[in-house]
Structure formats: C-alpha cells, structure tokens
Amino acid sequence: MLVRVRVNGAAREAEVEPRTLLVEFLREHLNLPGTHIGCDTTYCGACTVMLNGRTVKSCTLFAPMADGGEITTVEGLATDGKLHPVQEAFAECHGLQCGYCTPGLLLSTLQLLKKNPKPTDAQIRKGIAGNTCRCTGYQNIFKSIRMAAAEMEKR
Amino acid sequence: MYAAPFSYHRAGSIQEAIKLLRELGEDARVIAGGQSLIPLMKMRMTRPTALIDINFISGLSEIHAPKGELRMGALARHADIENSAAASGIPLIHDCAAGIADAQVRNQGTIGGSLAEADPSGDWATALLALDTSIVCVGPSGQRTVALEEFVKDAYTTVLAHDEIVTTVHVKMPAKGSGGAHLAFKRSAPVYPTASASVQLTLEDHDQCKDVRIVLGCVGLTAIRAKGAEDALRGKALTEKSIRAAAEAARAAAQPQSDMRGSAEYKRALIAALVKRAIGIAARRARGESVESGHEYVGR
User: Fold this and answer.
1) Cα(B224)–Cα(B217) distance, rounded to whole angstroms?
2) A130 closest CB neighbour out of B6, B7, B190
3) Are residues B158 and B255 in the same domain?
4) pLDDT band at B110, cuts 50/70/90?
5) What is the pLDDT along chain A (155 residues), one digit of tens a residue?
6) Same domain, yes or no, for A67 and A99?
C-alpha cells in the first residue's frame, strides 16, 4: 500500500507491505538510515523518532499507521549545515562513544526540553529512561542534556 | 522482525470499525496504540490477517470529569492521562499513567488498548480495580457498560465480542477523605513490572479505615482483589500491626509464577512490601498530603 508522510519537512511516499515497520520504512524505503534499529523489541529506544510532535519507538509502529503524519528524524535536526544545539551539546560533552543510541537520545532530549526547558536530574532520568546506552554510563549524556537546556534557553 | 502478513484498514468511525470487524472475520483485530499488540505480532505469538486501525477516529481520546466521574476515551494515551488536569484529581491514576514503560511508549499506548489486551502484567486493570470503574463497549447492536470486575475474564481475555470495541472508561471519583496509590516494581523503565499493587482507602478520624480496596498485579492470570488484606484493615485503625496483617494477607493472596522476572517466592515478598508501602502512601494522601509515588526501577 502507498504510505505518504512528511519527513523533516519534505513530502515523501513509498509503496510498502502493511507489515513494514516505520523504522524500516524510513531506512530502507526513504533512504534515511540515521534512525537506528537496536533491540527491535520496544526496549532500547535507538529507533526513536518524532511523529506528529511526540517521540515514538519506530520499531513498534507499522508504517501505514504513520500515513499522513509529520515525522522528524535525526537527519532533520541540523539546519543549513549547522548542528542543532542538542547535537552541539552531545558533541561538546562527549555524550556518545559508539554513537549507536545517539539518534534516539537526541530526539528524546528534544522531546524532554520541549515539554520542560529546565529539567532537574530526576526529570532527565525519567525523560531518557526509554533510551539505552551501553557505552558511556550516562554521565556525559546528562552533561550534554544540561548543556543543551542551557544553550536552548539563551536562544 | 517481521509480523506475519496482514491487510491494513483505517476506520473513520466506530460504526465503520465494527462493520470491518464483521466483514473481515475472526482473524481481524483492532489496533490502537499497538504497544502490546505489535511486539506480540513481531514475535508471531499472534497473527491477525487484518488490522483495523482506530487511531484516526475522532472524539475517542478525550479526558474529562463531568459530575462525580472521570471519563477517559479509549484512545487517551498514557501520556495524555499523565498530563491531564482532569485525571490529576485521582492520584492513583496519575501514578499509573506516569509510570507505564517510558516516554515513547506512553506517547503511543492507549488506556483502551491496554484494558482490551488484558495482559496479566498490564498496569491499568490493577490500578482501576482499586476504584469503581466501568468500561463502555460498542457493538453492532449498540452500547453496553460493563464493570471492570466483569470485563476481564482471564489472561488476554475479556468479555468483548469479536465485533465490539471499547470506547470509554468511566471511573467514579473517590469520596472525600479517600486516598490511593499505585506502586509497581520493574527491573528497568521499558519493561512490564515484576509486581504491582494498588490501594485506595477512605479514612475517618485521621486513622480509622472506613473502606479499602487492595489489588495485586502481575502475580496471577488477572489482577487480584486481595479481599483478605482489605478485611485486615476495614473498620480498624491503621497501625503498624494492622498494616503488617494486610501485607501478609496480600502475600498469601498472590498467585505468582516463577519466570525470568523472579521466583514465585521473591514475588510474594515483593507484593507484601509494595502493599505495605502503598497503604502508607494512600493513607497520607487521604489525609490531604501531596506525595510523589509510582513505578520504581533501578536508576530511577
């Protein structure tokens, strides 16, 4: 069936089987491999994207359910070649090592800061509880999110 | 992982969804948030031949509190309930909504889907059994309202007919002087709890327990009303001794199975601890105190 979405501001469409997962639709059919498949079991959050302004795990959504929707992936965060403040902060604070979980964490951070521009550490923990990182131990991720919050507040 | 093939149908109205269920036959299923159904389909534990997507039916996600009642549309997302001013009037409901899985799953999963799925480890049935809850279901011959006690029959089994859909969840507002709490313990945020407990109690004269409901989750095929535990408190003063007796009765009422989340013995101990703590928080809330509470997990 034909699935039509807006991804990172552009209208995109592809003919897919209904059982195609949103994450595969993005990666394989729309050629947007920035969103990662981690556990494929609704656990790790590497596949997190924004659908109609809310983060979802794109491994746990069939592509037709997103038909007509507005999607933001990691590829849509930078504008005019300039990194988004959340990306800048993760780079600055070494909020990643292997980078596998990073696309999902960036979107979850964005969702958290949109709802709560000045989160406490407890609120950060709750906000990214659905994103698993197996490298860094989270300390630098927390630093990155605190810095992103401070930077975004200035703008 | 790929689900088995299916055809996809987007319903524009409840009537259309019911018509599609009848036309597409017994192997068709309704999909709402899909946060339980899609993982099961990917593991091929269920293989519907057709999915009827009800996410785009308008008017099914409202949350409002008309006189003496909280009404939540079947498509209200856990996050909508977590952030709803109307729902915040019942702290036990906020505990439950704010603690289910993680932010992404709460953004997508729905209360109606969770109840209709009747997963033994789901949170909503446990939480809502501690309150007066009824489920509005619509089928080809009209609407019926079923008490939650009657709605869930067994693990993954409800009274819903094949061509019936949950549309609204009605919860009676607790009496003045009543307080409640839903506590759950899970190994990490995204997973189902190992055990959960919901307590709603009404106090008079500060610590006399006038009425109480105690419900245990994840330790049986359905949520369990621990009536023995309730009897240990009802009509009595809340003391260390009576609370301990209630926790012990809850431990005895649990019917846990050993699995990857823990041994049966461990889960019984966990249930007793959760019930004891939930009683304490419910009592403080009944006295008007504002207490933060909810799901506990490592790293929270």
Assistant:
1) 7
2) B190
3) no
4) very high
5) 999 999 999 999 999 999 999 999 999 999 999 999 999 999 999 999 999 999 999 999 999 999 999 999 999 999 999 999 999 999 999 999 999 999 999 999 999 999 999 999 999 999 999 999 999 889 999 999 999 999 999 98
6) no
Nearest to A127 among B10, B103, B188 (CB): B103
| pTM (two decimals) | 0.97
Contact between B104 and B192 under an 8 Å Cβ cutoff? The reply is no
What angle is formed at CA B189 by the lines to CA A56 and CA B199, rounded to 5 degrees?
Answer: 115
* Same domain flag for B82 and B123: yes
Question: Is the domain of B153 the same as that of B208?
Answer: no
Task: Report the chain B residue with the minimal C-alpha distance to residue A43.
Answer: B190
Nearest to B103 among A19, A64, A108 (CB): A108
Is residue A56 assigned to a domain? yes
Residue of A nearest to B83 (CA): A115
Question: pLDDT digit string (tens) for B44-67?
Answer: 999 999 999 999 999 999 999 999
| Number of domain units in chain B | 3
Which residues of chain B are at the A interface, by a Cβ-Cβ cutoff of 8 Å? 1-8, 10, 31, 34-35, 38-39, 41-42, 51, 53, 55, 79, 101-105, 107-108, 188-191, 297, 299-300
Note whether residue B266 is domain-resident.
yes
Chain B residues near residue A49 by CB distance under 8 angstroms: none
Range of the domain at B18: 7-53
**B22 and B48 part of one domain:** yes
A17, A23, A24, A26 alpha-carbon torsion, rounded to 10°: 100
Asked if B167 and B204 sit in the same domain, the reply is no
Q: Are residues B132 and B230 in the same domain?
A: no
Strand bridging mode B7-10 / B50-53: parallel
CA nearest neighbour of A91 among A78, A76, A73: A78
| Domain end (from A24, A49, A73) | A73
CA–centroid distance for A107 within its chain: 3
Q: How many residues does chain B have?
A: 300
Q: Which two tokens stand for residue A9?
A: 């501001």
Residue B2 lies in a domain: no
Q: Which chain A residues have a beta carbon less than 8 Å from that of B79? A: 54
